């Protein structure tokens, strides 16, 4: 009995990870990439039905050779499993997105460039690779926001012992940073006041602690905020466009005071004569009769009601003169 064919089949089954082809591939293990320069198929020699099978077979063999190379690299065993340390990539892959166009220079940037002035401040906008446009560096809609990423790469110095969900960890770290920032604001406020907590500073601290909470505001608070907003422009809201139904708040009239510096003698003399003329004149055209009558009545000399009240106050504690029991 010839067992050669049986041994060949057993050997082939045992070493199924070794494909039946020469290893002539070009490898870039850092990018997990292999290139087969010898593979070519002539459509004239192969039927269209067999073309897909040939490509699948070549892909399977090349992928197996690539995995064999990867598993020959240095490995580390940890609780989460076995990890392979990949080398640095050598292939320069083409961009998947358009090259960002340069931002238009502002007048100041153009002037600074001509004069050689260097601005050390970071630019407010950063290019977002995911959305393909310029976005703010900080804030809720900032560019390259880590929280919006769907995959997080493990860094070399990170240890998988005590593994924690990186997305939850990222959110918790952000909350800690916000709390630390508020604590720093409070410390700066206390330091600016010389270490003493005053009433105004206590309000500032309460405002810092309550910032970020969506508390319902009363109608009075909303009106106050609206009034402040209406006067927040340079013209104090005089030339702003008013919305339909928007309430108009009257501004307080300021009291007018005479200047402390010495005026022209003629102006001062004229003002004093006007005051004297108003005092000595008999013209009652400027007199408010209703106000004068009410003032007179309130003094108790012209109203029956006020006379009665005064009479009662005068008889208080004395002998009554009304009808009594009569003489015995």
Features:
single chain, 328 residues, mainly alpha, two-stranded antiparallel sheet, two-stranded antiparallel ribbon, 9 helices, 6 strands
Structure description:
By secondary structure, this protein is mainly α. Among the domains are: 4-84, no CATH class; 103-149, no CATH class; 165-211, no CATH class. The protein is 40% helix and 7% strand. The chain contains 9 helices and 6 strands. The strands form 3 sheets. The chain has a two-stranded antiparallel ribbon with strand order 1-2. The protein has a two-stranded antiparallel sheet with strand order 3-4. Strands 5-6 form a two-stranded antiparallel ribbon. A hairpin with a 4-residue loop joins strand 1 and strand 2 (33-35). Helix 4 (166-192) packs antiparallel against helix 5. The radius of gyration is 46 Å and the shape is elongated. The termini are far apart. 0% of the residues are buried.
Uncertain ranges: none
Radius of gyration: 46 Å
Indicate the structural class: mainly alpha
| Secondary-structure element string | HEEHEEHEEHHHHHH
Give the distance, in angstroms, between the N- and C-terminal Cα atoms: 164 Å
Number of helices: 9
Beta-strand portion reads: 5-15%
Across the major sheet, the strand order is 1-2
Shape: elongated
Function: Involved in ribosomal large subunit assembly.
InterPro entries: Ribosom_reg
Region (Disordered): 298-328
Keywords: Coiled coil, Nucleus, Ribosome biogenesis
């Amino acid at each position: 009995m010839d067992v050669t064919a049986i041994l060949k089949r057993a050997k082939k089954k045992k070493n199924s990870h070794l494909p039946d082809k020469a290893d002539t591939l070009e490898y870039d293990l850092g990018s997990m990439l292999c290139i087969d320069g010898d593979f070519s198929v002539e459509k004239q020699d192969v039927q269209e039905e067999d073309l897909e099978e040939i490509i699948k077979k070549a892909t399977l063999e090349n992928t197996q050779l690539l995995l064999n190379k990867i598993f020959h690299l240095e490995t580390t065993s940890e609780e989460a499993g076995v990890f392979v340390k990949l080398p640095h990539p050598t292939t320069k892959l083409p961009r998947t997105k358009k090259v960002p166009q340069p931002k238009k220079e502002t007048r100041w940037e153009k002037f600074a460039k001509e004069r050689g002035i260097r601005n050390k401040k970071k630019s407010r906008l950063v290019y977002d690779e995911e959305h393909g446009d310029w976005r703010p560096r900080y804030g809720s809609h900032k560019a390259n926001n880590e929280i919006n990423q769907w995959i997080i790469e493990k860094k070399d110095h990170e240890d998988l012992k005590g593994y924690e969900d990186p997305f939850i960890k990222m959110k918790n770290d952000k909350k800690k940073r916000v709390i630390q920032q508020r604590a720093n604001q409070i410390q700066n406020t206390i330091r600016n006041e010389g270490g003493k907590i005053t009433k105004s500073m206590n309000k500032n601290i309460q405002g810092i602690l309550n910032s970020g909470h969506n508390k319902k505001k009363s109608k009075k608070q909303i009106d106050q905020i609206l009034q402040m907003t209406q006067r927040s422009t340079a013209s104090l809201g005089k030339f702003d466009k008013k919305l339909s139904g928007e309430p108009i708040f009257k501004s307080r009239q300021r009291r007018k005071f005479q200047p402390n510096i010495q005026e022209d003698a003629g102006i001062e003399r004229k003002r004093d004569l006007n005051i004297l003329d108003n005092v000595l004149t008999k013209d009652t055209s400027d007199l408010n009769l209703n106000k004068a009558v009410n003032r007179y009545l309130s003094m108790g000399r012209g109203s029956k009601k006020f006379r009665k009240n005064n009479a009662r106050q005068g008889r208080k504690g004395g002998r009554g003169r009304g009808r009594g029991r009569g003489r015995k």
